[in-house]
Design brief:
Length: 299
């Protein structure tokens, strides 16, 4: 794959083991830092790291609050668990956030937590939610993407008779601000999920860490796009890279590897507690340092 265009940088603040006002402070600061173009939350109902009894906020409710408190950042949940909410309900929630934000939403969605880590699996029985086997969960995700897009774009009520989702008289009003609809970002790395990405996604996200595996998965997505006659370049490649505040050089190196591999949408994961002025630090010590390193493409 050819190198991606000049990368677009964003941040991710997991809404767990942290206070709402701390996240709000980071997002407000980031909203005033032009180098940071997007911001994300995650979608878990219980902690998956740290104190198992610690606080975790519901992602979409928090996202709507943050949308009302910011003006420029594109924003989303990376990624919504398709196992948590029926797709028609999610379409309504997402439409509301797109309107609140003035058309800044990217819909991040995925299959939902795998059986590991165990901390993620426990949130399903704790909330009375079924945990589908992986194959059925991927099929459900594909149907969900179809339902959501139709609710966002169709003008007349419709019925949907899928294997996993059944709707009668489905109708979305109001419509999202963005036309034809907010971009759909699908997260995941399994071959089955990548087939859904090829069919439905505008952006694809994968966690960083093993760049060789990331490259292999991106090449597999290219093949799946070719199978259905879709231009692989029409799917923006997105990667999540954790930030170590004490070792910024490692993050800068990871950014360079990701961009060289064709990833133009970089999500920098910020751990709490957040240092004072963390958004400006990201812009200066990570984004600025990367752009000054001589590895920038498409600038």
């Amino acid at each position: 794959m050819a190198p991606a265009p000049r990368p677009r940088f964003g941040i991710m603040t997991a809404p767990s083991q942290v206070d709402y006002h701390d996240i709000l402070s980071v997002w407000r600061e980031a909203d005033a830092v032009p180098e940071i173009e997007h911001a994300w939350l995650f979608d878990h109902l219980m902690p998956i790291f740290g104190d198992p009894d610690g606080p975790t906020y519901e992602g979409w409710t928090l996202l709507s609050a943050l949308a009302a408190q910011t003006r420029r950042l594109r924003l989303g949940v990376m990624v919504t668990s398709n196992r948590f909410r029926p797709p028609a309900l999610l379409a309504k929630i997402a439409t509301t956030v797109d309107i609140v934000s003035g058309g800044r939403l990217d819909l991040g969605i995925g299959v939902g937590s795998r059986p590991n880590p165990p901390q993620a699996r426990r949130e399903y029985p704790a909330h009375g939610l079924p945990f589908q086997p992986p194959a059925q969960a991927v099929e459900s995700l594909a149907e969900a993407c179809t339902v959501i897009r139709r609710l966002w774009t169709e003008k007349e009520p419709f019925d949907f008779h899928g294997t996993h989702h059944q709707l009668t008289g489905a109708f979305g009003s109001p419509n999202p601000v963005q036309r034809p609809h907010p971009p759909i970002l699908i997260g995941g790395r399994s071959a089955a999920t990548l087939r859904v990405v090829a069919e439905h996604a505008d952006l694809w996200n994968i966690p960083g860490g093993d760049i060789d595996d990331v490259v292999r998965r991106s090449a597999l997505l290219d093949r799946y796009c070719a199978d259905i006659g879709r231009d692989p370049a029409s799917i923006v490649r997105s990667i999540h890279l954790p930030v170590d505040y004490d070792r910024p050089g490692e993050t800068i190196e990871a950014i360079g590897e990701a961009v060289d591999a064709g990833f133009g949408h970089i999500v920098l994961g910020l751990g709490a507690p957040y240092p004072a002025g963390v958004a400006r630090w990201v812009a200066d010590e990570l984004i600025g340092a990367y752009r000054g390193s001589g590895r920038v493409h498409g600038s």
